[in-house]
Amino acid sequence: NKQAFEDSKRGFIAPLENKGVVKNAKGDVIWDLPKFDFLAGDKAAPDTVNPSLWRQAQIMQHFTGLFEVTEGIYQVRGLDISNITFIEAPEGVIVMDPLISAETAKAGLDLYRKHRGDKPVVAVIFSHSHIDHYGGVKGVASQEDIESGKVKIYAPEGFTEAALNEGVIGGNRQTRLSGYQYSMLVERSPTGNMTSGLGLDTSKGTVTFAVPTNVISKPVQKESIAGLDFEFMLAPDTEAPAEMFFYIPEYKALSTA
Question: Which pTM does this prediction carry?
Answer without folding.
Answer: 0.95
